[in-house]
Amino acid sequence: MPLVTLVAGVSASGKSRLVHDLAEKHKGRIAVPVAFTTRAPREGESHGVDYYFVNSKQYACYVSEGILLTDITYNNKRYGYTKGEFARALCNDRRILCVTDRKNVEVIKAVYPETAAIWLDISTEEQQRRLGRRETPEVIRQRLAISDEERSWARQNAHLFRFASPDTSQAELATLLESIVFDD
Q1: How many domains does the chain have?
Q2: What DSSP string runs through 89-140?
Q3: Mean pLDDT per 10-residue run, the chain (184 residues)?
């Protein structure tokens, strides 16, 4: 059974919802680390719940102090998980389940070799529809371009993931993720 399970995939593929729902179902058994980010909160997001929203200077301090397990840049914003959150969860016998970027998968697997990872994808049309609810046309174009790169990268690094096809239902994804977290 993996102690750490990562959920990666293209923007708007449902990663956060899937992780949130499984963590709610298994309260006390799953820890969902909260990442630091330099991006602004979206509508409905809360500091300390969805992310720790910090400025660039604060984030740079965390990097220089060596407290981050991961440090990636996505769409000109930085994101990182702390070493401490992972360690605390594991010391408390909790499985770690987190949404992450493709770049973090290799970093986290290097530190926690038994890590499992799943890659979520959706059709470009569905991705545009979902992004259209929260992003400007310019941001949507940027996200779609990044997603094309991510899909290519994921195919080239298929050994890192279990793949969920674009037509997999949310219920099927939930069952698959639950089996990875608890049954492997």
Answers
A1: 1
A2: HHHTT-EEEEE--HHHHHHHHHHSTT-EEEEE---HHHHHHHHHTTS-HHHH
A3: 90 92 94 96 92 97 96 91 94 93 90 93 92 92 93 91 85 91 77
b/e for 166-176, b at 16 or more Cβ within 10 A? Answer: eebeeeebbeb
Q: How many residues does the chain have?
A: 184
Which neighbouring-strand residues pair with 131? none
Q: What is the pLDDT of residue 169?
A: 85
Q: Which residues contact 135 (CB under 8 A, 6 or more apart)?
A: 143
> Cβ distance 80 to 33 under 8 Å?
no
* One-letter amino acid of 21: D
Instruction: Report the half-sphere exposure of 59 (CA within 13 A, side-chain side).
Output: 20
Amino acid occupying residue 101? D
Write the CATH number for 59. Answer: 3.40.50.300
Where in the sequence is the domain holding 156, given as residue range(s)?
4-183
Residue 55 CB: number of other CB atoms within 10 A? 9
Confirm if 29 and 94 have CB atoms less than 8 A apart: yes
User: What sign results for the dihedral spanned by CA atoms 71, 73, 76, 80?
Assistant: negative
